[in-house]
C-alpha cells in the first residue's frame, strides 16, 4: 500500500481484513498529514443527506459504484466503530464530537496494527524496477518491494508540505489529466480600508445565485460558498455577489431611495439594508460608483473584479489526476495489472463538506476489495 492518507488506509483495512499481509509506505514522517490538517477547524467527515443527492455532488460518475458500496451513512458507522461519536450540524455536515481528526486517526491506526498492518514512514515511491517491483527511496537507502498486489493512493497536487506533491505523475507512466486547483480561495489585492474586516464573515449572501457564506481574508475571499464554484472559477466565469438575496432588486432600491437625501451615502446604506460593516465595506470597495442608483443595483449584483484563483499548492484539493481510460472498472491500471489507484490520484472532483473525505474512503475501500479479488483469482489459476 503506497500512501498513508484516508484512501490508502481504507484500502489497507479492507485488504488486511481479508487476511492479506499488508505494509503501508508513506513518504512523510507520520501518516495522515493532510487528514489531520482537514480536522484543524473541525473534521467534517461527510454530509447527512440522501445518498443519491450526495453522489450527485461528484464530478464524473466513475466513483458512483464505490459510493454505493460505501456511502455517507457508512462513513458515520465506520467512525463510530472506532469509538468516535458523531453529530450533524445545522447545515447537514457530520462531525465527530471530538471535532478533531487525531483521535479518529489514532484509533484507526491501532485497529490496522491489530490486523497485522505494518507502517513504513519516510519511504518515497520513485518508480518500478525492470521486474515490476516498486522502488522506494528511504533513510536506509534504496529499497525494492515485490508485492502480490499494490494499491497506490499518493494524493493530488496540492499541499505539498503535507505529502501531496504530484511527483508520482512521471514514474507512474499512464495518462494523467493535468492538475488544477479545486476548493480554492479567490485572490484579490484590497485597498487599505478593507484591512479592519480581514477574517470577517459574509453570512447569508449569494455568489452567482448560490447562497451561503464566505470570509474576507487578507488575500481575497474564501469559504464554502467560494469553494463550491471552483469549476466555474477555473473556467473563467464572471462572478457577482448578491449581498441581499432575501430582497428583490426593486425592494432593495426602494429601501435606499426612501432614506432622507440629507444623510451621507454610507449611513443611508446602513439604515436601508442593515448590512454588516464587512459587507458594507465590500460594497464600497467593489461598486463602480457611490451614488444611490448605482449602489442599489450593485448590492444585488456586485461584480467580483480583479480576482484570481489561489495557486494549486494552496488549494484544499485538486481536479485532474489519473485519467478514466487508464484504469478499468475496478481501479486497476490497464497498463500495469495488479496495481490499483485510489483517492485524489484519480481524476475526480467534489466540493468540501465531507464529500472529499468520503470519496477517498470509498475509492480506497473499492480498490482494496478489487486487489483482494485480483490476488484470489491469480492464486486460483495456479496449477499445483
How would you characterize the overall build of this protein?
There is one protein chain. The chain has 384 residues and is an alpha+beta fold. Helix content is 33%, strand content 20%. It has 14 helices and 19 strands. The protein has helices at residues 6-17, 33-38, 51-55, 64-69, 72-81, 102-114, 169-172, 224-227, 230-234, 249-257, 265-273, 277-286, 292-298, 355-380; strands at residues 23-26, 46-47, 86-88, 93-96, 118-121, 124-128, 134-138, 141-145, 150-152, 176-182, 186-187, 201-207, 210-217, 220-222, 240-242, 302-303, 308-309, 317-322, 339-341. The strands form six sheets. Strands 16-15-12-13-14-11-17 form a seven-stranded antiparallel sheet. A three-stranded antiparallel sheet has the order 2-4-3. A hairpin with a 2-residue loop joins strand 12 and strand 13. Helix 1 (6-17) packs parallel to helix 14 (355-380) and helix 10 runs antiparallel to helix 13. It starts with 5 loop residues before the first helix and ends with a helix. The mean pLDDT is 94.
Amino acid at each position: 500500500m503506497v500512501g498513508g492518507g484516508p484512501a490508502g488506509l481504507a484500502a489497507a483495512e479492507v485488504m488486511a481484513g481479508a487476511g492479506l499481509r499488508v505494509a503501508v509506505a508513506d513518504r512523510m514522517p507520520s501518516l495522515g498529514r493532510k487528514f489531520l490538517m482537514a480536522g484543524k477547524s473541525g473534521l467534517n467527515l461527510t454530509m447527512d443527506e440522501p445518498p443519491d443527492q450526495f453522489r450527485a455532488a461528484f464530478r464524473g460518475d466513475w466513483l458512483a459504484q464505490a459510493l454505493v458500496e460505501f456511502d455517507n451513512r457508512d462513513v458515520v458507522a465506520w467512525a463510530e466503530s472506532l469509538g468516535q461519536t458523531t453529530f450533524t450540524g445545522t447545515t447537514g455536515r457530520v462531525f465527530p464530537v471530538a471535532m478533531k481528526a487525531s483521535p479518529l486517526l489514532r484509533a484507526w491506526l491501532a485497529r490496522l496494527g491489530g490486523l497485522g498492518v505494518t507502517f513504513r514512514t519516510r519511504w518515497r515511491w520513485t518508480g518500478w524496477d525492470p521486474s515490476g517491483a516498486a522502488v522506494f527511496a528511504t533513510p536506509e537507502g534504496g529499497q525494492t518491494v515485490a508485492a502480490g498486489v499494490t494499491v497506490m493512493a499518493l494524493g493530488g497536487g496540492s499541499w505539498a508540505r503535507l505529502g501531496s506533491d504530484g511527483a508520482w505523475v512521471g514514474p507512474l507512466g499512464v495518462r494523467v489529466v493535468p492538475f488544477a486547483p479545486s476548493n480554492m480561495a479567490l485572490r484579490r489585492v484590497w485597498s487599505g480600508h478593507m484591512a479592519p474586516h480581514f477574517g470577517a464573515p459574509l453570512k447569508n449572501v449569494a455568489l452567482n445565485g448560490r447562497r451561503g457564506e464566505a470570509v474576507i481574508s487578507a488575500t481575497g475571499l474564501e469559504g464554502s460558498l467560494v469553494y463550491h464554484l471552483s469549476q466555474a472559477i477555473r473556467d473563467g466565469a464572471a462572478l457577482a455577489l448578491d449581498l441581499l438575496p432575501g430582497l428583490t432588486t426593486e425592494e432593495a432600491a426602494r429601501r435606499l431611495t426612501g432614506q432622507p437625501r440629507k444623510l451621507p451615502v454610507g449611513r443611508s446604506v446602513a439604515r436601508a439594508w442593515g448590512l454588516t460593516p464587512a459587507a458594507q465595506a465590500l460594497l464600497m470597495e467593489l461598486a463602480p460608483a457611490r451614488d444611490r442608483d448605482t449602489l442599489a443595483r450593485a448590492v444585488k449584483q456586485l461584480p467580483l473584479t480583479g480576482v484570481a484563483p489561489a495557486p494549486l499548492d494552496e488549494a484544499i484539493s485538486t481536479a485532474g489526476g489519473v485519467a478514466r481510460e487508464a484504469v478499468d472498472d475496478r481501479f486497476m491500471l490497464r497498463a500495469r495489472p495488479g496495481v490499483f489507484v485510489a483517492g485524489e490520484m484519480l481524476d475526480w472532483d467534489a466540493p468540501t463538506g465531507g464529500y472529499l473525505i468520503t470519496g477517498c474512503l470509498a475509492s480506497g475501500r473499492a480498490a482494496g476489495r478489487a486487489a483482494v479479488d485480483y490476488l484470489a483469482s491469480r492464486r486460483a489459476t495456479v496449477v499445483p
